[in-house]
Amino acid sequence: MALSRYNDGSQAAPRLRLQHSLWSLRSLPMNAPEWSLDEKFARVKAAGFEAVECWLTDEDEVMHREALDRHGLRLVLGHRPFSPDDCRKTVERAVRLNADFIFAQPADAYTSLDKVVEIVTEGRKMAADAGLPMFVEVHRNNFTETIPATLQLVDRLPDVRFTADLSHFVVVGEFYGWEDERAADRMMPILERTAHAHGRISNGEQVQVDVGDGSGATAQFFVNLWSIAMRHWRDGAGPGDVFPFASELGPPRYAITLPDGSEFSDRWEQSLVMKRLAEQAWNQSG
Q1: Is there a domain that residue 244 lies in?
Q2: Cis omega before residue 158 (within 30°)?
Q3: 1 belongs to a structural domain
Q4: Residue 31: is its pLDDT beyond 90?
Q5: For residue 44, is it within any domain?
Q6: How many domains does the chain fold into?
Q7: pLDDT, tens digit, for every residue of 222-247?
Q8: Model confidence pLDDT, tens digit, residues 100-145
Q9: Alpha helices, H only, the chain
Q10: Under a CB-based contact definition with an 8 Å cutoff, are residues 41 and 74 in contact?
Q11: What is the C-alpha to C-alpha distance for residues 11 and 190, in angstroms, rounded to an integer?
Q12: Cβ distance 254 to 24 under 8 Å?
């Protein structure tokens, strides 16, 4: 039976866990010599994040595992499977590296529903057999890039659990956060099944925008969506259950740049804003 939540094995009350994307640490600090891997992980740890989400290869997995251990950080693995065998390889890597859970960006928009159902079903079973949850990420250029396609997957696999990167739905659907768009209603079957979230904010036209201190309407629209997902997750959550939330702000070309290619938004500072907004959403969800 597939696992619907990540559980840390403790008897602690259900909680929010803040983590950071390794990809989001690329090319930081902005417009300056890049931090080393140890500098990146030291800053992540000092900022209060507990884990790092990585996409790893046979060549770099040991280096990253050792660096995470040096800084007392947990590991989460992402991957993009086009077959059950792709899932098997990631499950094996997760076991080898003692990862907490796996998230998957399934195939692409041109892959049939039947094939995606096979990938997700087999992948979740293999992960569960290894004691790991596997969540399905909603993401552009995957089968789950639109709400209607993702709802087809829900119809076929009602017990599926998602990694909610809602910035993709918002930019694909050109949502502005207006009430009559009914964004939350349209996403509700996905929000009800969310077990992990990524912190990136779209304004309906760009997939990633600077939200300042996070108090504006664009950021608070996302806080509301995240809090709905967290509220549903908390229903039935038990001791040791953890809701992971990752700051995931991409480097260029995700990040908007000036004509010379330089960034003008401080991604590191914005990642800390995402962390604070996640904490706001968690408090609202209770």
Answers
A1: yes
A2: no
A3: no
A4: no
A5: yes
A6: 1
A7: 999 999 999 999 999 999 999 999 99
A8: 999 999 999 999 999 999 999 999 999 999 999 999 999 999 999 9
A9: 37-46, 61-70, 84-97, 113-129, 147-156, 166-172, 183-191, 217-234, 267-285
A10: no
A11: 28
A12: no
Owner of token pair 């991409």: 250
What pLDDT is attached to residue 190? 98
Tokens of 98: 């003692």
The answer to whether 153 and 144 have CB atoms below 8 angstroms apart is: yes
Residue 43 lies in a domain: yes
What torsion, rounded to 10 degrees, do the Cα atoms 117, 235, 76, 167 define? Answer: 70
What the block records as the tokens of 137 is 């990420």
Burial class (CB in 10 A: 0-12, 13-18, 19+), 265: middle
Residue 42's CATH number: 3.20.20.150
Tokens of 138: 């909603």
Quote the distance between the C-alpha of residue 171 and its chain's center: 16
| Residue range(s) defining the domain that contains residue 217 | 6-285
Residues in the chain: 286
| Residue the block writes with tokens 């938004």 | 265
Secondary structure class of 144 (helix, strand, coil): helix
Tell me what percent of the residues of the chain surpass a pLDDT of 90.
98
